[in-house]
């Protein structure tokens, strides 16, 4: 497999024998070069001594020499600076566009590496590299988790940049859209983001002081005021009287008025709301009511978040409840025991991890403000680790997961490496391939 040959070359995992060209000239590898994942030679700016002469240039790797011809490199000027062609099977010659011959080296993947790689690819156990983890130095684990944490932050920063480009670089609007997505807590994330992306923010701002009208905007744009209302057959748990839902009709009436006033066209949700296996307290209606209350009570929320310098201050900003109606309802048809539906501490921490911290980092980069970037990293170390099946799996095999920084790193590892079986880019995979197996 060509990918494995790239790996062996990049990490100098050569068989224990002198390296030489197919013509018998000795090769000394000073620098394998920069791995290129785009078009062109596989490794740039390698430094090699071939027969005592220092060469600086590119390296190309194939499973067979004939792949050089099959890919048309002999006619491509981009390959004129190749100083070494590597193949597992040498079945011909490699020439440049000017007709000169490229030195070749036959390189086999060590059997132990091939065997270990096949093990990682085939296993259904998660994490697949569990056997080596107890033997890994703490520094190796810490450095890889730190790199994964930064990689995840950078990916989230890119998502924020993409949203900013779609919404005229309005940080307040994009912050709310991202916040809404994370109020979906995974299952309804796409639906919440689609809903928030369709909100007429400037129109809502004109009625921000009226919570009923904010809720009318939110529920109306969510398509939750369009279904015909069915009277409750049950009795209200607090009053033991049959429930007549005038609030639902008031929201409908307000939304029709706002639609006419702002010439709004109701748009169908691109992603349906999901209720299956949701606890009633997490129903979209409850989360929308909490967002409406937050929007109603917190002006310039993004600016306030950027100014808050402690976790407690951030948590206070996002601690919200609902209008009185939702203290006795889970949706317009399902009643609940009367109690405030405030955002709990676990939900607050998830909101900070997935919304506040990425925006601190992204805005810090945008403003060249190192303090905001450092605050983002500091918050990750202060917050508790997320508790889910992924973090529990790593804890079970002996990897300590104590902070949100650790759990974010492991989520990145699972999504971008383990799920894709991309062990060749993983530092734990590197240790496994080298054969450092726990006994």
Can you describe this structure in just a few lines?
With 439 residues, the chain is an alpha/beta fold.
What report would you give on this structure?
The chain has 439 residues and is α/β, with parallel strands linked by helices. It contains 17 helices and six strands. A hairpin with a 2-residue loop joins strand 3 and strand 4. The longest helix has 29 residues, at 138-166. Strands 1, 2, 3, 4, 5 and 6 form a six-stranded mixed β-sheet that branches. The chain has helices at residues 2-10, 66-70, 111-122, 138-166, 171-183, 189-197, 201-205, 211-221, 246-262, 284-297, 301-307, 311-318, 345-366, 370-382, 389-396, 404-418, 427-433, and strands at residues 27-31, 34-35, 43-50, 53-64, 82-89, 104-106. It has two domains: 2-109, no CATH class; 148-382, no CATH class. Helix 4 (138-166) crosses helix 13 (345-366) and helix 8 (211-221) packs across helix 10 (284-297). The two termini are 29 Å apart. The model is unreliable at 232-242 (pLDDT under 50).
Kindly state the mean pLDDT as a whole number? 92
Instruction: Characterize the quaternary organization of these chains.
Output: single chain
The gross shape turns out to be: elongated
Report the β-strand fraction as a percent range: 5-15%
Provide the gyration radius in Å: 29 Å
Poorly predicted runs are 232-242
Count of individual helical segments: 17
Order of helix and strand elements from N to C terminus: HEEEEHEEHHHHHHHHHHHHHHH
- Total number of distinct structural domains: 2
Percent helix:
40-55%
Q: Major β-sheet, in short?
A: 6 strands, mixed
Terminal-residue CA separation: 29 Å
The secondary structure category is alpha/beta
Secondary structure tally: strands = 6
């Amino acid at each position: 497999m060509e990918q494995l040959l790239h790996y062996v070359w990049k990490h100098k995992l050569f068989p224990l024998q002198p390296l030489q060209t197919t013509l018998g000239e000795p090769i000394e590898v000073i620098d394998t070069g920069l791995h290129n994942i785009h078009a062109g030679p596989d490794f740039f700016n390698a430094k090699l001594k071939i027969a005592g002469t220092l060469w600086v240039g590119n390296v190309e790797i194939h499973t067979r020499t004939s792949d050089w011809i099959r890919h048309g490199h002999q006619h491509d000027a981009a390959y004129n600076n190749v100083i070494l062609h590597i193949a597992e099977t040498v079945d011909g010659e490699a020439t440049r566009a000017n007709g000169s011959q490229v030195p070749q080296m036959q390189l086999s993947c060590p059997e132990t590496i091939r065997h270990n790689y096949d093990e990682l690819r085939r296993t259904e156990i998660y994490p697949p590299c569990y056997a080596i983890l107890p033997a890994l130095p703490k520094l190796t684990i810490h450095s890889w988790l730190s790199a994964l944490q930064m990689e995840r932050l950078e990916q989230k920063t890119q998502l924020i940049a993409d949203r900013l480009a779609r919404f005229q670089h309005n940080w307040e609007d994009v912050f709310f859209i991202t916040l809404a997505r994370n109020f979906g807590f995974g299952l309804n994330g796409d639906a919440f983001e689609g809903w928030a992306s369709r909100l007429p923010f400037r129109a809502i701002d004109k009625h921000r002081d009226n919570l009923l009208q904010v809720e009318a905007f939110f529920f109306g744009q969510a398509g939750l005021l369009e279904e015909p209302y069915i009277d409750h057959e049950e009795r209200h748990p607090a009053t033991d009287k049959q429930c007549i839902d005038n609030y639902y009709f008031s929201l409908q009436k307000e939304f029709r008025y706002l639609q006419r006033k702002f010439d709004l066209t109701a748009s169908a949700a691109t992603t349906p709301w999901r209720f299956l296996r949701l606890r009633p307290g997490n129903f979209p209606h409850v989360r929308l009511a909490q967002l409406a209350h937050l929007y109603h009570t917190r002006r310039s929320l993004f600016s306030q978040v950027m100014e808050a310098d402690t976790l407690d201050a951030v948590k206070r900003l996002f601690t919200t409840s609902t209008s009185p109606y939702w203290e006795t309802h889970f949706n317009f048809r399902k009643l609940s025991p009367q109690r405030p539906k405030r955002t709990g501490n676990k939900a607050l921490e998830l909101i900070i991890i997935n919304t506040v911290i990425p925006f601190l980092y992204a805005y810090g980069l945008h403003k060249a403000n190192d303090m905001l970037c450092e605050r983002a990293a500091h918050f990750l170390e202060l917050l508790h680790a997320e508790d889910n099946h992924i973090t529990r799996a790593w804890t079970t095999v002996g990897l300590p997961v104590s902070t949100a920084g650790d759990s974010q790193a492991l989520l990145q590892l699972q999504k971008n490496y383990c799920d894709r079986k991309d062990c060749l880019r993983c530092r734990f995979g590197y240790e496994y391939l080298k054969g450092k197996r726990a006994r």
